[in-house]
Recover the amino acids of this structure.
């Protein structure tokens, strides 16, 4: 398999990572994950735009233009003959002797890899509702993910698939997904503020739901309303739209895999089919 290093495709065993990369010292970097269907990266331009925005928010220079980055991602897919899978790429602030202070003279380090994914996907998930202990810039897709990592472990230790986070009782998002509740055919999800990552799948889902005539309310809601919802689902690049059947932890709820969720899953599948044809 080949990996991406700066603008080169290199065999994985030849890739060298420097121990003085600021990614290692401080988690000082950003990343994206894209889903590859039929040998083509889905919603690539949305991911590249978010990558650029993350860079700007962290005062990180873009090593390459978004167009160039997109070409490198597509080259990696072709070199690895990837049909269905994912591409991960990250850019750290670069290599320098360990010091909290960055100088703006560092050259960022871009690395990336691809991985096949199974065709069958998870039918539903159980969520573990717990405290959101993350920092106040969750809108930035940084490689510094300790709050997310600890929450995922906690969820798994409670036999759940994903953590659902609440900040002082307000539901934010999953540890690696966004969350939607449905009540009386209206969708509810946290607004795209500094407290969540504005998922690409979240944005596509909102657009599809509105096109189907559903109302989408992007407002914060308290954890107590979870149990009153008719349906719930999570969204992410890897898991697309996945129904939630159960929530445990700080609240308890059960949901059927309902008609609105199914309708949106169908609409999402059509988006993927459209993308694959062009
Ligand atoms: N929130 C968090 C914290 C995430 O890590 C992710 C996935 N990377 C998402 C939401 C979903 O975002 P996307 O749909 O762009 O994958």
């Amino acid at each position: 398999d080949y990996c991406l290093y700066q603008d080169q495709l290199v065999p994985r065993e030849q890739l060298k990572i420097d121990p003085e990369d600021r990614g290692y010292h401080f988690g000082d970097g950003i990343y994206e994950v894209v889903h590859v269907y039929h040998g083509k990266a889905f919603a690539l331009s949305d991911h590249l735009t978010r990558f650029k925005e993350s860079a700007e928010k962290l005062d990180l220079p873009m090593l390459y233009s978004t167009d160039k980055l997109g070409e490198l991602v597509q080259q990696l897919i072709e070199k690895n003959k990837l049909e269905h899978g994912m591409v991960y790429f990250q850019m750290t602030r670069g290599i320098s002797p360990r010091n909290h202070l960055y100088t703006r003279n560092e050259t960022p380090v871009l690395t990336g890899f691809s991985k096949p994914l199974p065709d069958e996907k998870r039918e539903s998930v159980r969520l573990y509702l717990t405290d959101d202990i993350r920092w106040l810039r969750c809108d930035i897709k940084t490689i510094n993910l300790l709050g997310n990592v600890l929450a995922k472990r906690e969820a798994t230790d409670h036999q759940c698939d994903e953590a659902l986070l609440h900040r002082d009782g307000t539901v934010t998002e999953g540890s690696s997904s966004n969350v939607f509740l449905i009540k009386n055919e209206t969708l509810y999800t946290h607004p795209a503020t500094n407290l969540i990552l504005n998922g690409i799948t979240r944005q596509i889902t909102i657009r599809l739901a509105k096109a189907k005539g559903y109302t989408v309310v992007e407002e914060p809601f308290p954890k107590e309303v979870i149990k009153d919802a008719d349906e719930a689902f999570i969204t992410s690049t890897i898991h697309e739209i996945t129904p939630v059947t159960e929530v445990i932890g700080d609240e308890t709820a059960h949901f059927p895999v309902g008609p609105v969720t199914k309708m949106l899953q169908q609409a999402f599948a059509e988006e993927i089919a459209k993308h694959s044809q062009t």
